[in-house]
Amino acid sequence: MISSYQKSLWSRNLMLVLVVAAVIGVALKIGWSLQKIKLYDQALAYYEAKDLVKAEETFAKANEHAGIEYGDEAWTTQMSGLTDIREELESLSRQAQPAIKDNREEEVLQAYRSYQSFKREVEGRQEARTATFFQAISTRLGLEKGWSAYYQQAIQHAKAQMQSLQVSDQQALIHTLVLVPDEFFGGTEKKAQELETHFRRYETAKLQERADSLSFLDVITQTAKSIELYRQEGISSDWLQKQLERYAKGEIGRVIRQNDLPGFVAMAKAYRQIQNVLPDKSEVLATIETHLQSLIEQAEKYAKQHKFTKATDLYQELSGLLDTSSLLAGVDELWTQFDPSRLLQQKYPDQAFDPVFTGSDHWGAKTYAIGVDQKEHRIYFAAKPTENEAPVSFDLALDIDTDFTFTLSKLEDDHDSPVLLVSSVGKERAYLYTGVVPQLSKNSFDTRFVIEADDLTIEDAARVIVKNAVGPGENELASFEFGRKGLEYVAKLEDLQPEHEEPADPASPSATEEEGDSQSGQGTPELPGAPSVEVPHTPSAGHSVDVYAGPGKEYKVIGQVSLDSSIQVVTDLNGWYQIQFDGKEGWIETPKTAN
Questions:
Q1: Measured between alpha carbons, how far is 179 from 388 in angstroms, rounded to an integer?
Q2: What pLDDT was estimated at residue 528?
Q3: Which pLDDT score is estimated for 38?
Q4: For residue 164, how many other CB atoms are within 10 A of its CB?
Q5: CATH class for the domain made up of 532-595
Q6: Helix (H) / strand (E) containing 37
Q7: H or E segment to which residue 112 belongs
């Protein structure tokens, strides 16, 4: 149990401790106050001596002693402002130095701009001593000197690279120079002028170097990339655009003068691909479009002159610059109209036909071609229904084993649907006659009749005179009618005496039609052995005319024929007759009929 005496003793000791602590605290405060007063007085002395750096440094130490309030309040406020300036500059120095050391351009520039902004703020206070203090602290920290050395080195390094044309990273070089503050060039205007001078000198030399060693594509691609880099940095590159235009104009003009079409197409295509970096009114692009239009007009001229291969080849060459599909389709349509035999050539490229007959406006076809293969005893058919429809083609194997003749008869299965008459050697009679009609909707031939007889004469679109037919009309000269069911017996015209006939020569006429059965403009086909068609009497009868290899005077002259002779017309096409003469085929211009 604690006695009252002990409690009293403890209380007394505690009070003594507290008193001693208070005395010590007062003593310390008095000491700190005296130290603060001393430092304040010393700082004031430095201030009056205009040594602001030491004055602020001493004042800052005095402020560390928070004992008493001492000194003039206005002066204290002024000195606190100087302390703020020093601390801000020290902070900027801590930002700038490691950024400069590691060449972190963006951070260096950010610290520099913060410094310049703070400097303008201080100078804006219009206090001479404050501005002097700012400059003194900045100098002591080496801020402006550090930035100056950093940027001057960057400028000199960039210049050296450009002079040697050994720029490893053009984008980085341009970006570095753009980041250099204007004042290191002497101002905004001088910076723009100096940079343009350096960039222009570099790009001019670089363009020449590229032109001497690289392809057109590489030259314009790399130059276009440079223009894009300048644009990204906000630098005007009109001068580089002009240099690029001048180079491209010379190169493209050269291939145009040399008629180097592949070269023109390749260059024009490449130049169009950099259109986004070219001037709004590019002279080179205009030159390309003008020449391209002239080439299109040349192709159109070829087509009009029936030089379809040249027109097609030219359009195909130009397909790298524009969509020529519709232009090619147009040429193909004209070519097919001019020479329908192409329909067969395209469908059966490896098949040889002897001969080929062409025409138009039959069986629902705008143009058609019929090819004959005597060896295989087969007929091939190809047609273009309309301009917008795809061609159709099919063939027919004839049930014969001898040569045959082939004519487009006057018999009509329907309007503009004449019957193709095939004549071959018969088994029981001199001839076997087969009538077939192309059916475009079915892609096949429709056999309309088969009849054996000693002769067959077509009177008109429906009437046929048959001599000694097998079956109805035997030993008669009989009339037959052509209808839905084929050839149907109508009436006996006269009796015939049975005769023993020699086997027919397939090369001799097998069917006859009244003179003048050729349908002008319809492409009437006949094989060798078909009845001859007399060329209409003309004022030039008695004279010879040139025979051409094709339907036009642009084709080679391959012979001459007399208009007085009996000329076998195979086809009538666009004012030209396809004829057979001297065992070969040719074309003569359709004679004008005498009035």
A1: 63
A2: 36
A3: 65
A4: 9
A5: mainly beta
A6: helix 4-48
A7: helix 105-124
Which residues does 469 contact at the CB level (< 8 Å), separation at least 6? 429, 451, 452, 453, 476, 478, 480, 489
Helix 73-101 to helix 143-164 angle, to the nearest 10 degrees? Answer: 30
CB 78 within 8 A of CB 127: no
Q: And the tokens for 363?
A: 């069986």
**Can you read off the two tokens belonging to residue 392?**
């159709």
DSSP-based three-state secondary structure for 486: strand
Is the preceding peptide bond at 355 cis, omega within 30 degrees of 0?
yes
Contact 378, 393 (CB under 8 A): no
Q: How far apart are CA 362 and CA 221, in angstroms?
A: 57
Give the pair of three-digit tokens for residue 387.
Answer: 């301009």
Q: How far apart are CA 26 and CA 166, in angstroms?
A: 75
Q: Which amino acid is at 206?
A: K
The answer to whether the CB of 115 falls within 8 A of the CB of 90 is no
Q: Which of 80, 32, 39 is nearest to 62 (CA)?
A: 39
| Angle between helix 52-62 and 73-101 (nearest 10) | 100
Can you tell me whether residue 137 is helix, strand or coil?
A: helix
Which has the closest alpha carbon to 425: 447, 452, 449, 450? Answer: 452
H or E segment to which residue 476 belongs: strand 476-483
Question: What SS3 class is residue 265?
Answer: helix
Q: Look at residue 553 and give its three-state secondary structure.
A: coil
Number of H helices, E strands in the chain: 15, 18
Give the H/E segment covering residue 36.
helix 4-48
Rounded Cα gap, residues 441 and 282, in angstroms? 54
> What tokens does 219 get?
């030259």
Q: How far is CA 70 from CA 32, 63, 74, 493, 584, in A?
A: 12, 10, 12, 155, 132
What's the pLDDT at 19? 60
Collect the ranges in the chain with pLDDT lower than 70. 1-2, 5-7, 12-13, 16-39, 41, 43, 62-72, 498-543, 564-566, 568, 570-574, 582-584, 592-595
Domain ranges of the chain: 215-338, 357-515, 532-595
Strands 476-483 and 463-467, sheet pairing: antiparallel
Structural tokens at position 388: 């917008």
Q: Which residue is it, tokens 């002693």?
A: 65
What's the gap between Cα 380 and its chain centre?
40
The size of the chain, in residues, is 595
The count of other CB atoms within 10 Å of the CB of residue 366 is 17
8 A C-beta contact, residue 567 and residue 532: yes
